[in-house]
Amino acid sequence: MPDRPAAVGLLGGGVIGGGWAARFLLNGVDVRIFDPDPHAAERIDEMLENARRAYRRLTLVPLPPEGALTHASSVEEAVEGADLIQESAPERLELKQRLLADASRAAGAEAIICSSTSGLRPSLLQSQMAGAERFVVGHPFNPVYLLPLVELCGGGATAPETLARAAAAYEAVGMRPVIVATEIDGFVADRLLEALWREALWLVHDDIATVEEIDDAIRYGAGLRWAIMGTFLTYRIAGGRDGMRHFVEQFGPTLSEPWSKLVDVPELSVEFVDKLAAQSDAQARGQTITQLEQQRDDCLVTLLRGLRAHGVGAGETLAAWERDLARTVTPPPRSNGAAMAAPLELFASEVEPEWIDYNGHVTESRYLEMFGLATDELLLHIGLDDDYRATTGSYFTVETHICHLRELFAGDRVRVTTQLLGCDAKRLHFFHVLLRDGEEDPIATGEHMMLHVDAATGHAGPARADVATRVEALVAAHARLPRPERAGRRIGAVPVG
Predict the structure, then answer these.
(1) Lower CB count within 10 Å: N or C terminus of the chain?
(2) Domains of the chain
C-alpha cells in the first residue's frame, strides 16, 4: 500500500486524536502523539482497546502488525519523521494556528499537514504556517477508527497535489475522502447536522417532542435509509419513475410552509431544478428506480439484522415481531406413508449479500448456518417444539462433518435435503445435502450426530416416546434410500511431493 504513511504525528489526544491514533496504529502505521494532558495516555489506551475489539468483528481479513505508539513531549518530537501530521486540538483558532505553525517549521518538507477542525476555514488555519501549500483540513467523524468519512478542504494557499496526496493517504487506511471544493464554515456534513440539531432543539424547547422521541424518529426511520442512500438518492426514489424532477415539483412547494424553523430555502427555479435532476441522474449511474429500491431493501435487511443481534433500535422491534411470529408458526407437516421414503425437504433460502466474503462467494461459516437452520426444521418436524424443550429436553450437536464441494454466490436460491441415517434412544444421526435450485449436484454436504439431553438433569437421556417413534419410523423409511456417498468418510491423508 504505497500511499499509506509509514509514520504520522498527532497533535492532540482527545476523542478525535485518540480515534486517529487507533485507526493509524491498527493499519500498521507508527504514531507519535503530543498532548500535554497527563491523562491523555490512559484515554488513548482505552480507545485503542475499543478499536481492537471493534476491528476483530469488523473484518475477517488479517490486519497488519500494529504500529508503534510513542507519547511525545513536544510538537517537534511528535512530527519528527512523520509523513502525515494530524492536528486535533480543541476548536480554538489561536491554539490551532500556533500548533500548526510550530509543526510546519519542525516537520519534513514533504509531510502533509492536516487539521481535524469541524468548521474553521483552512485559509485561517494555514495563515501562520511555513509551507502552507501542504496544509489541508481532514475532518473526520467519531469514532474515527470506524466511520470512514473524512472531509477534505484546502485553503487559499493549498496546492492541488496536497489534496490528492491526503486523499490517497486516508484511503490507504480505509477511509472515504469527500473533497469540499469551496471553502465554507462547517464544510458539508456539519452544516447538515447543525440544521437537524437546530430543529431538534426547537422541538424540545416548544414541548413538541422529548429528546428520546426525536432520537427514535431518526433511528427507526430516516437514519436507516441515510446510512444507505443519503438524502438525494432517497428522494429520487420517492419521486418514482420520474425521479428527482418529479419529487421536487411535487413536494418543493411545501418548503414554503411553516413546518420548520428553517424556512430560508433557495428558489426552485427551472435552472435549479434542472441542476438537481441532472446531478441526480448522474448519481444513479444508470440504475432504474426498481434496482435502487432493491438495493435499498437488501441493505436495510442487513442493517436490521445487525441491529437485531444487539437488541438496539429497529433491531429490537424486529426481534419482538419475530418472537410473536414464532409463537404462531405451524410446524412443518410430518411425513407419512410413501412420503417418508424420500429425503426430507424442510429448508430453503436465498443467499444474502452479507454472506459474501472478500473472495466474492459465500463464507464457510454460512454453510454451517444453513445446515443449522435445516436441523432446526428437522427437530420441529419430529416434534421438538417450545413446550417439549421446556419440559422434556432437546437434541444437541456433538459432531459435524461438512464437505465444501462448489461455490455459492449472492442471490442463489438453495434448499437442503435431509436423510436420517440412524438413531437409538439418545442419539440421532442424519445427513444434509445443500443444493442450488435447478441443479442435482450438491454444493455441500453435512453429516451430523446429535445427543438427546434431558431438561431436568442436563445429562444425556432418552427422547420422549412419541418423538422416538417418529424418529424410528423416518430412519426405517430412509434406510431404503441409497446411503449418501460421503456419509461416514474420514479426511484422507494428502501425499506430499
Answers:
(1) C
(2) 7-187 (3.40.50.720), 190-295 (1.10.1040), 332-478 (3.10.129.10)
